[in-house]
Records
---
Amino acid sequence: MTALGVFLIVIYFLLILAITKPVGTLMYRVFEGQRTFLHPILRPLERAIYWLGGVREDEEQSWLSYAASMISLSIFSVLFVYLLQRFQGHLPLNPMHFSTASAPSNATPMTPDLAFNNAVSFTTNTNWQAYSPDTTVSYFTNMTAFGVQNFVSAAVGIAVAVAMIRGFARHTVKTIGNFWVDVTRCTVYILLPICFVATLIFVWQGAPQTFKGPATATTLEGVTQVIERGPVAAQESIKILGTNGGGLFNPNSAHPYENPTPLSNFLQLTLIFMLGAGLTYQFGKMVRDTRQGWAIFAAMSAMFLAGVFVLYWAEQRGNPIISNMGIEHVYTGSQPGGNMEGKEVRFGNAMTALFSTVTTDASCGAVIAMHDSFTPIGGLVPLFNIQTDEVIFGGVGAGLYSMLIYVIVAVFIGGLMVGRTPEYVGKKIEQKEVKMAIIAVLATALVILGFTALSSVAKFAPNHYWNSPGPATANLGNGGAHGFSEILYSYSSAAGNNGSAFAGINANTPWYNLTMGIDMLVGRFLFIIPALAIAGSLASKKLIPVTSGTLPTNGPLFVILVVGTVVIVGALTYFPALSLGPIVEHLQMLNGKLF
């Protein structure tokens, strides 16, 4: 690792630390219905949305009604996005004529299974893309289907997190807020204003924002080159802020149109963590003890910093097999050294390690390098980040409610240690809360490991067409341990609603499109529904006064307990699978047998 690389990582973390309180304070005021500096401009828009939707702003919902509203919106979103994709050939703003008879020869057909996978992907805030965006989806579909869902899915995640916070903050009530009001306020006062400013900055830095089709240019060699473009900047801002991750180009944020400069890269990194970090402070404000929020922030930060420095070390160290061949692989000032396969030279190992850690901590899925080309330990870090159920800052909202579920498990363990009913922020954690937490944790593990096992041994998994069966392993770019890691990463990314990939796998087949669609649905809704059930149960309980026997939950010891719970649960669940993938691949590399 270089001193400059470490310095950049530390500066980034200090920036996130600095903005956590102001962002959290703004979010607290928005969701508490208090007036902010944006209200004179945006309050009429908020009221108009309530009027059009028939929403009563002062009417709250039980957790069951809140969950039903969330599910109904999600069902509508899946159907809406599916139909738009299937009929995009008959809709405007399609200069490349995708899904028509005159589509380019390199266009990817929008088959029913691919449209289903995409609809589920963008509704669940996953943005898994089993296709090349610039050869498959029209501008209209990108904006009205995927772009809209980038806002909606992010707002839904934050709304659920706020509802769960209310469960801890309120007492002896049966309501946890109004889903439609929470989604509206999040979109109007948080997502839209930040995205508006970010879009202008991206355009300033060089990201295109146009409805014109591809440009054609003649190179110096006399070869005709087709240059794709589109409404990139606007999609980029919400793709990053909403931790969605799906871009308009196949290389994603490694593409110079999506991420033109080091400044735009640093802005993207900041936007990814901004709301997830702010929610921790909002939690402390709402439970009237900001130290509780900072304790959660500290637990997330400890795991983030551990991950980024392990990943940076692994990539900067490089591949010893290359070193044994006598090839220079050490940083010299004139060349970056380390493992540069699959990386943008303009970003280097330090920024790549930081971006890859941040995007998999936050279930964003945007990438500036191909994770498939990382060293085995370098690839293990983003994979394990996802398998922690994205609790390390996590997706917008999803990170906090996932972490709170692990906090419940940690408090339960702590309660067993001190021999009394576990408590957290004045609420007893009892049988129902622990059962719901365990259901959420086990559900994702079940689909990740189950589908990975099936895809590793299935002999008749449908591939390109239903009448053309073959083994699912035929779609791998690599064999052995790395091929297994490609499958494991794909299902982990889907269940974690992340969307990044070990790109060596071709996942655009009926088998992967359908199984990963199910994977995404389970990972999203079997975490949200238990979280809302916990919120409803806690909101109805009385506050318990702190006594000498109460386990402190705002100090370093509790931070260590939470981090230990996350790591141990993850290790016990996934270590056997990781042993068959990146761990055995690392041992092969050390023995010089990778190639």
Note: The mean pLDDT is 90.
---
Amino acid sequence: MKRKKIIATLGPTSLNKKVIQKMDQSGVDIFRINLSHTNLDDFEELVLKVQNWTTKPICPDSEGSQLRTGNFQRGIDFVKVVEHDSIELVGCNVEIRDGQIPLSIDSPYQLLQVGDILEIDFEAVIVQVTSLKKEYINARILSGGIIGKNKGIKVDRLLDLPSFTKKDIEIFKISNRLGLSTMFLSFCSGAEDIIKLRKLFKNDIDIISKIESEKGLRNLVEICHESDGILVDRGDLSRDIPLEKIAFAQSIIIEKSKSLNVPVYIATNLMENMIENSQPTRAEINDIVSTLEKEADGLVLAAETAIGAYPVECVRLMKSIIQEFHNGPLNKSLDYLFLIPSNNLITPHGGELVQQYYKGTDDYSFNDYYCLVVDEKIESDVIQIANGTYSPVNRFMNSEEVNSVLNENCLLNKVAWTLPIILQVDKELATQMPKNGEIALRSQRTGKIFAVLNIECIQQINNTKNDWIQKWFETNSADHPGVYQFINSGDYIISGKPFLIINNSNSVKVAYDMTPHQTRKIFYQKNWHNIIGFHTRNVPHRAHEYIQKKALEQINADAIFISPVTGIKKKGDFNTDIIIRCYEELIRKKVYGDYDVLLGSFNTYSRYSGPREAVFSAICRKNFGCNYFIVGRDHTGVGNYYKSNASQNIFESLDLGIKILSFDNACYFEEKAEILFSPDNNGTSEKIKSISGTKIREFLQKGVAIPGYLARNEVIDILQEYYKKGVNDIFHEKCIKK
């Protein structure tokens, strides 16, 4: 199916770099400049400015052959008129007096006739011409109201107006010089208008002719033969066609244009509600879908993106509706209807979010099951596999899958993956349990059954001489904490799919933890598209804050998803609750400015796997819905086992779908009294000081005041408050050996 285009009109609320770039990224195909609301003197500068912000086509929309009100005296935007009074209409070439209504043409007395009925601005005001003078026209007011400047006027007979206004001609000259290649031709009345316009340009141009008058509709076939596209302006067309018949006129134009192989676009009132509100109405969505079903090639956002309060959101919702239109006919199931639209978010790794749940009740339901007690690490892996955080991994791996991961950096289905996800047990357990089928998993932490594991196979491994160790950890040393954990966790691995038990008292729920399904729903509801993932085990310090802000600015992001790691930690790590509280305080104080933040912890543990673990962390944030991920130097490093830039370099050889934002170390430069990136300095210079959670911990343990260059006062105050209560309140005491 041919992709539907989105044409967005620029105006006061969208004419800035950040908004235009977000609209571009969100799916705009063409940026439209409405010349009826653009000063001639501003046009060239406006085009050049926008061209610096986007590579998408910038297309002028001419004023065209239409009678309009002109500009009133300086400082006056409208005139109120009363029914049964009389007014004077004057041309744009005379000096305007109080109370007179200017028109957009010279010498209107040569165009209008006594008895003409004029409907101004969609019947807001109706007048009848009563007499013609050389200087002005007298008219009586049949229906009173407000007459604004630059408002369209419909006359109750066909007028012979020029194809282009004087301003149009000048704009065409500038467009010709700037090399603009697409023009919207307003109030196109026949093939001759299009031919005239082409002759004004030295190069070939695409002309999208707007059908918005009776003349244009009656001459549709000849207009199609000369045009590169047709735009149905339902607003201005409703001056000539009763509102009740606009939908039928639209259908006729689409049908005829498509029969002549001419693309057709639809404009006006598509998301009018979003001029002031953050969502369209259901009727508007139905209108859009109905228009797409009639095979329109694209849709035009006008006031919604020009003067509306939500220009970016309009584009994103339009893109989402178009994507659902493409997907909908292929997915007729009820389940599809309940899925969160994900087209505006990054696709889960491997294409689909794993969801594995067992709808059990209570422990007694598993009386006949073999029950395996698992530690906090395995409990965490079960939760994250079942919730889809490790997608597309849906099981504890067997030896063949581990070999593929360590040798090829991919799963057996060739999806990029770098970290083995295994369930190790000792020989005693391996010989006791069933070799296949379902077993219950009981949490060592809570004593409750929380999941079911469908065993596929149990395999013996030589975990002391296994060649996995070198490939996994880049060392065989038992002093390496990851190696130590591996060789002391059992020489058998169980492969199989875990299913998390839900809807019972054993359900695993932790405050601030979020599943990928939950975060994606929040991102969807907030209409975020560009979300940065940030992995941390530390309280927020100045270097992390600096990097986070740089990342937000660099990609003009919608938000950052800060996900502190929970689960087992090593002795001396900051406790999770203090990390959460510090970040909450920064968010409350609006440290991130106009950028949005979502704080959601991630129940996992360190595998001490260096670069492989950095990739794993990025994939997990991709599954949460982040399309960017921050990787610093020495990310997930362990001692001196990995080069400082190894965790950044590994991404160069992998296609993950998520974009990596690599940053150097951020240090405090004392002479400049500011934080800057320093790729080769780790704070060894007296005048360049390193910033880290370790440094903060050292100052706390020495009982010395934490310097302001390490953390904000809000963070320091919280840390000192906790430290006064006791070391166990601020630092983690449970220890993974080594």
Note: The chain is about 30% helix and 20% strand.
---
Amino acid sequence: MARARYLHPLGRALVGALRGSTEHAALYFDERLRYVDRDLPPAQLHAALREQMTAEFPAIATALADELPADGVEQQLWDFHEPLLNPPDAANRVLFIGDCVFVETRAFLAQRRAESGRPVDVRHVFFSAKQPIAAVNTAVVNEVQRHRPDVIGLSLFTFEGVPPYTYAWRKAALPLVGARTAGIARGLVEIVRETIADIRTVSEATVAVHVPCGLPLDRLRHRIPFAPAHSRAQRRLLRDLSHGLQELAASVENVVLVDEAALAAELGGIRAAAAFAFAEDDVPPGYSHTTALGPALARYYDGLLSDYDLVGKAKALLVDFDNTLWNGVMAEGDVVHNTDGQRLLLELKNAGVLLVALSKNDESSIQWDQLVLSEDDFVLKKINWLPKPDNVSAAIKQLDLAADAFVMLDDNPVERALVTEMEPGVRALDPATEEAWRTLRRWLAFPSTRQTDEARRRTVMYREAAERRAAMSGSHDYETMMKSLGLRCRIGPAASSDLPRVLELIERTNQFNTTTRRRTAAEVSQLLDSPDWLVYVASLRDRFGDLGVVAVAIFDRAERAFDSVIMSCRAMGFGVEFAVLAAVLDAAGPGAARGMFVPTSRNGPAAELFAQAEFQQEADGTWVLPPSASGPQAPSWLARE
């Protein structure tokens, strides 16, 4: 039985792979990785694989004698397995939560990403009809914490992953049974909602929820091509479930829907989607029942990850006008507005994305009253006849962001090429393509956008910051210049209402972050409630406006140590960090204190914090403030409120 159902299919996959089939190789490599501990350190993992292969390859070479040339088969096997023994670093992390559909998705996804030079680390928490949901959700939370995925796929129904769906689906297949499906669908949607809620206790990653297309087909309907693929009650259950999942996605942040029925339609219908991906006389169904839907889902997730790579961590969108926000040239006459695109950009702005107008135009020719967007929706307006790379360089400096925080939307391929070549890190999208607008729509489901008051105010705050930098660009002495800003700071213990902003600082801040230690909402809530920890926040305002909460310090009272000191880049240079340190130390009481700095490739701005605050570095890298030291002092230009 094992030989027929497992070894034979695996052997055929290996033969196909050695003959050059990337699909066979994908299936084979995925199966190889199922039987090693993926959480081992790389050296141990590779040693375990090498030990297995050393023992197996002579036997495999003998077994394949009739399939492949005898000379050099063992060396061919070693060469073929090189990607397993020396894999490149993964660009993305994906966690699949659900049923058998992901067995056939993960292999082809890994293959596609490897071919594009963006390798992915894929893990899978299996949901089956034989497992209690609560027990699986515990495993989900543990794996999300351990794996820290960028994207999470959630499929509980495609291959009958949870018992209530399995029961309802099979009952609905019977004649004259299962007519009432709305209540069943509501209950199933609640299972999905509960699973997402458990995920949200440890991660804000995008969750891709599968809307099932009705696989697998029962044996009778699978074998009779002229029979309907589903009974009337099954179709009604799928429809009710689809409506419920759409409502859920609309009410929960960072959720996208995977419409399996649409993918099946692209393949030629549900029967085509249910067909085996490999010919049965080549690779028998065996353990994987690999269907055509698996590669289609891999293409979907490949696109989702590509969009994440483009905009998932971006903060600003450089927006061309003519033939981008409208068709035509406004200075030359009437234009046809892309109102859907403009509404989408307004949604992005309200979710915290900074819009920068980047148009070769006379500003007087822009008829703002015709647009969905207003002038105030743009943090900067670069509407002039300067070269666009010069305008982009100026915007990067004015907003004080890294180049890789910017994405460009421009119809002119020459302008896109010039900007991306002159400002490495900036990515570009062509508004003439559906893919560009799909990417921008998906941006709303990535954690870099948020439906919060802070996100909605971000454009105003960055505009004020740009004005602030302009005011400071004169030749005044530094202290006089700083006092001219009228800086006022409020520092105190974080309240529960500060939690969203504290999380945002913890998750998004890379530059002024002493340890870059990420925490979940549940973890931060525990710190806020614990008498053993101090969590202090600082808000800042000046004569230009209110910057809101700009810094957070987390202090372990038992260890008398700063666990993390984090500050938004828009508050750098004002001395807020020293005022925060001083306030926390006052609250902690007299005695020595320690701080930790963990260097990364991006947190150089925080490297000198403890030294400048009179801490002394120990041999183990820890910074210590002796009781005798005067310690950090708030600068004279910063008034406390």
Note: Residues 42-63 form the longest helix (22 residues).
